[in-house]
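Holo prediction — iron/sulfur cluster.
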Amino acid sequence: MEKILVSACLLGDKTRYDGKDNFFPFIRTLNQKYDIIPFCPEVEGGLPIPREPGEIKGASIVTKDGKDLTKFYQEGAKKALALCLYFNIKIAILKDRSPSCGSRFIHDGSFSNKLIDGTGITARLLIAHGIKVYCENDNLEFLLKEPKSSFSSLRKTSRRSPNDKKTLNKKNR
Ligand code: SF4
């Protein structure tokens, strides 16, 4: 079954900076035809829940008071890419407006809730490696028209590496 990488918060995991989720019910329907792999690049990159939100400013990701979080975001992006390469994942559905996952819009770096066209660190890296990145606001119905597979599952998110196949195969949800 083809695998899709999905922002963990879209599946209901409380991985957001404020400890909440961005549950988007339609995504779960994709488990009819895809093996859904939840992933949160910020958590996987080493940031806690809850955490201070970051915004992209130039080549860095910083908090409102100027703390540089770039290395955590980059680490999460690298792990997302490694996971995609390891499992030959060609499609990702990532939460828009996030400095990691955004694929259409990101905040402008002023911490004033203003959005600009742009991509988050993880989305950008995946796109650069040929992975098709969609967001929850795209029309994703076409994905259900793809050829059907015989098995489906939603898997629980956790800290893991691409080498930790056991973790990925652990539990359906
Ligand atoms: S980094 Fe991505 S997956 Fe994690 S909480 Fe933010 S939008 Fe969701």
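READOUT: Residues 160 and 166 are 9 Å apart (CA to CA).
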